[in-house]
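Query structure, 482 tokens:
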């Protein structure tokens, strides 16, 4: 066994599953505040694993799979070697997965070239250093969610731009360096395909058919639990069992799923431990039954094309609503009135009685402090391609003290109507130029007369583009916390 594997770090951390405090230093940056709000809702809970609230691909357990053999290795870059650093998430999701996806999509044609390989080290440097989904210090670990988020927001540089080569001995890497990114090399969206009860809840999609269905479309990124046999494996045979006493830092690892073979009854897994003395030239066959029942605990997919996963993997729906805040002002009776629009962008009439509308006040710098001031709309039937303007009177909550706030209007937070496009189901309200709203001495908010939605405040739309996974999670968690 090579030297680095005897020291291999915990490179896929099961998150600490507690709400982390928000970074107060970034509170004046509205984009950071929006990210913090979404990240707050996307935090993990130790007692009640929230992975079930990530946006999921449709469970294709009942799909008819006719292909007996699938293998994407010919489109993969050469097996890499992460060395002594716990950067396996970046190697699996950027170097192997994203590179292969680019080749499959025709964007690249020679993954043996550094100029056509995604740099795992650039992705690692781009991962957040603080916050709920922060990477560990000293290159000691990360999780999949922020890795996919980075590739959606900033893209990832090529290996020729940000190189990393394992030299067979102890290395030094600047783990706190700043990433480069690449706006021409971004992902568009991602989904969780399956996960096991190891997360503490009910398993989802962890069936042979479901995983094979998505593997037919391209490689998948997986989280695995490693035992001693895996650590020492140096064979082209099928690994069909392992011990169940996982050894501390070896317990969790990120790798790429690149194929399956019904004759072997096994999945093909590509690692980042080099080619010399592990597996079958750096890859391994893992038996179906062992893979499903013990080895794998999470499976993710992603796409370079926006909407492709939604169209292919999620239940189709003709319903689609869009909301916007028109005004929010003080009334003579001392209450406030929020006026908002609901637009039916679907093909069928929809009653607002079929889904809730929530208006939530968040305190800046203390985003866990939130007040739901409205949780339902008037009962109105909206025809296709029609828009209605509604109003609601509310009081500033008695326990809300002075300070700075943000407002968020949410339509159908629990997706009762199976909304086709969740991106326009919410609307952030801020002060002038995206600054927080100030609560005055008489407990009023200085909401501008002409409200601008947060996404219209910046020219760099990509920095402020809300992603389906963030939206779905934030809406559901906001509803559950009311």
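Result returned for the query:
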């Amino acid at each position: 066994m090579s030297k680095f594997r005897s020291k291999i770090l915990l490179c896929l951390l099961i998150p600490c599953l507690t709400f982390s405090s928000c970074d107060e230093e970034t509170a004046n940056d509205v984009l950071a505040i929006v990210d913090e709000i979404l990240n707050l809702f996307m935090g993990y809970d130790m007692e009640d694993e929230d992975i079930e609230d990530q946006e999921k691909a449709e469970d294709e357990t009942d799909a008819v799979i006719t292909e007996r053999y699938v293998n994407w290795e010919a489109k993969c870059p050469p097996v890499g070697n992460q060395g002594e650093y716990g950067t396996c998430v970046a190697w699996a999701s950027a170097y192997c997965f994203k590179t292969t996806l680019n080749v499959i999509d025709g964007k690249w044609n020679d993954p043996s070239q550094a100029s056509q390989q995604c740099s795992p080290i650039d992705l690692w440097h781009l991962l957040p250093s603080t916050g709920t989904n922060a990477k560990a210090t000293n290159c000691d670990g990360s999780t999949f969610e922020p890795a996919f988020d980075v590739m959606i927001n900033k893209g990832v540089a090529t290996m020729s731009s940000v190189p990393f080569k394992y030299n067979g001995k102890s290395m030094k890497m600047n783990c706190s360096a700043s990433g480069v990114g690449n706006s021409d090399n971004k992902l568009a969206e991602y989904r969780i395909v399956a996960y096991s009860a190891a997360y503490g809840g009910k398993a989802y999609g962890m069936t042979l058919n479901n995983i094979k269905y998505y593997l037919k479309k391209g490689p998948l990124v997986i989280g695995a639990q490693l035992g001693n046999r895996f650590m020492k494996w140096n064979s082209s045979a099928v690994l069909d069992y392992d011990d169940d006493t996982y050894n501390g830092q070896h317990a969790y690892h990120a790798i790429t799923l690149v194929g399956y073979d019904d004759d072997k009854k096994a999945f093909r897994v590509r690692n980042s431990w080099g080619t010399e003395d592990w597996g079958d030239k750096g890859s391994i066959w893992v038996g179906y039954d062992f893979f499903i029942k013990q080895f794998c605990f999470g499976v993710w997919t992603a796409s370079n094309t926006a909407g492709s996963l939604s169209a292919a993997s999620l239940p189709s729906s003709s319903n689609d609503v869009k909301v916007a805040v028109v005004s929010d002002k003080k009334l003579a009776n001392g209450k406030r009135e929020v006026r908002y629009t609901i637009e039916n962008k679907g093909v069928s009439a929809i009653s607002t009685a079929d889904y809730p509308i929530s208006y939530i006040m968040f305190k800046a710098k203390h985003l866990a402090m939130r007040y739901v001031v409205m949780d339902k709309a008037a009962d109105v039937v909206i025809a296709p391609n029609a828009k209605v303007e509604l109003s609601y009177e509310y009081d500033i909550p008695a326990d809300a003290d002075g300070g700075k706030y943000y407002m968020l209007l949410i339509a159908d937070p629990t997706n009762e109507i199976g909304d086709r496009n969740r991106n326009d189901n919410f609307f952030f309200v801020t002060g002038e130029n995206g600054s927080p709203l100030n609560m005055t001495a008489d407990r009023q908010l200085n909401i501008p007369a002409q409200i601008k939605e947060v996404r219209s405040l910046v020219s760099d739309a990509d920095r402020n583009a809300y992603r389906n996974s963030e939206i779905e999670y934030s809406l559901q968690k906001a509803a559950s916390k009311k």
